[in-house]
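Exercise 7b. Backbone tokens:
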């Protein structure tokens, strides 16, 4: 410590400025000049001497230790009565403390899904996680350079529908699978058997040999509102098994196109990633209202987030029951014709007056289309009141009908518009294993498909040799 009293300049290690022994005073000379070294030495030797004080041992400051001990005692007492724990550190008389909660962990009760009791997210998870399954699939995809089959592996999700082992998932999860392995939440593994599915609706049913499984409770997707809270449980990335994500319903009737197939979907903000496909979409009552099916990760070279989709359960539950009974959707509307999309290029080459619609490439003998009077070269422009501009439109419209339903088709034929009455048929059983969905004919695939490698082959059918 520096002191400046009565023009004396000296240094001391004492806090109060006093010194324990001899003092070294430095006096100022005339006109503020500093004295010489000899004068300073003489002043030191001849000046009054202070008695030498005896140094006493300094007692250690134990205040900080006492405070710490007191805080720990309080923490122990507080913890016993449910309070928080306090860590205290004393530094130079000040105290720094860290509060640590001793609140016991929340106990999540497993409730029964009754459709009446709204649950927390944790309760929905606890009530349904034992009904969710992880699905691992192996298959074969073509051959390599040496002609050897190429083995493939993929993963998805599903949910238990019945106690005796029927499980619902997406068709694309188990399509062309050689083996299907199902893993339950408790670690039990089963080899599953493929029962049947439908690519148009992307649904499939598999079965494991088990008893007393915990099935889900189905809700009504028609009662879901935009903004309602939804949760998805599944197997994202094939590794993060039994993960739950949450969000809201962004749209409850969203029409999207997946690889050329139109779907009516529930759009959600819950995180949906590869491996989630086939898992349940749940409402806040713990009911399954959808089957998680697809996610857009990019659109027009733009990265996107918050776009997940699920198939409304009301749209497919009757088909799922049909698959469980018959192995396929037996009452699915069937046209009995090969259909493609009418294009501007086709209109120019065929000299048609229209450039959009569903073009009829072939008609199955004695099928529903033939019985209705549809012909090769017809262009379907409307089904009842629904406008048809492409194959996708026809496929989407067909989903609204079942076997035995009757529709009025508006058809362009030979430069004029006519109507025909069609009774939708049932898909033949021997075609269930095949891709019954009519694939759009493109310019690059045999030009106009179904054996017509020359566009004038069809033209000649109607107009003789006119070209």
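Sequence design result:
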């Amino acid at each position: 410590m520096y002191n400046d009293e009565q023009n004396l300049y000296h240094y001391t290690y004492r806090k109060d400025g006093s010194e324990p022994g001899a003092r070294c005073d430095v006096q100022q000379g005339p006109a503020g000049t500093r004295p010489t070294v000899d004068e300073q030495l003489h002043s030191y030797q001849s000046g009054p001497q202070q008695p030498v004080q005896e140094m006493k041992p300094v007692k250690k400051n134990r205040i900080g230790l006492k405070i710490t001990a007191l805080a720990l005692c309080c923490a122990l007492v507080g913890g016993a009565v449910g309070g928080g724990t306090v860590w205290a550190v004393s530094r130079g008389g000040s105290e720094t403390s860290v509060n640590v909660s001793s609140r016991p962990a929340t106990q999540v009760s497993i409730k029964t899904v009754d459709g009446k009791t709204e649950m927390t997210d944790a309760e929905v998870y606890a009530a349904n996680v034992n009904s969710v399954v992880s699905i691992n699939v192996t298959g074969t995809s073509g051959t390599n350079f040496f002609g050897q089959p190429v083995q493939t592996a993929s993963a998805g999700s599903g949910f238990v529908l019945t106690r005796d082992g029927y499980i619902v998932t997406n068709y694309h999860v188990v399509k062309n699978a050689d083996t299907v392995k199902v893993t339950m939440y408790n670690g039990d593994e089963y080899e599953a058997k493929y029962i049947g599915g439908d690519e148009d609706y992307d649904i499939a049913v598999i079965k494991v040999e088990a008893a007393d499984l915990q099935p889900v409770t189905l809700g009504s997707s028609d009662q879901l509102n935009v903004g309602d809270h939804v949760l998805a449980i599944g197997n994202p990335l094939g590794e993060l098994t039994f993960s739950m994500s949450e969000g809201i319903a962004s749209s409850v009737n969203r029409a999207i196109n997946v690889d050329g197939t139109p779907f009516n979907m529930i759009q959600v903000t819950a995180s949906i990633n590869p491996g989630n496909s086939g898992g349940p979409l749940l409402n806040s009552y713990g009911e399954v209202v959808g089957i998680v099916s697809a996610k857009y990760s990019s659109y027009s070279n733009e990265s996107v987030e918050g776009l997940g989709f699920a198939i409304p359960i009301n749209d497919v539950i009757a088909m799922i029951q049909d698959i469980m009974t018959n192995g396929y959707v037996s009452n699915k509307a069937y046209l009995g014709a090969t259909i493609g999309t009418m294009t501007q290029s086709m209109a120019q080459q065929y000299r048609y007056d229209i450039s959009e619609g569903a073009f009829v490439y072939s008609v199955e003998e004695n099928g529903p289309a033939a019985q209705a009077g549809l012909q090769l070269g017809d262009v379907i422009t409307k089904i009842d009141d629904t406008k048809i501009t492409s194959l996708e439109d026809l496929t989407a419209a067909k989903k609204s009908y079942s076997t035995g339903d009757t529709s009025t088709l508006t058809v362009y034929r030979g430069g004029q518009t006519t109507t025909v009455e069609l009774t939708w048929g049932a898909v033949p059983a021997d075609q269930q294993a095949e891709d019954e969905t009519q694939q759009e004919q493109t310019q690059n695939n045999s030009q106009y498909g179904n054996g017509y490698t020359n566009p004038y082959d069809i033209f000649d059918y109607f107009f003789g040799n006119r070209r």
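Instructor comment: The longest strand covers residues 243-258. Residues 29 and 287 are 99 Å apart (CA to CA).
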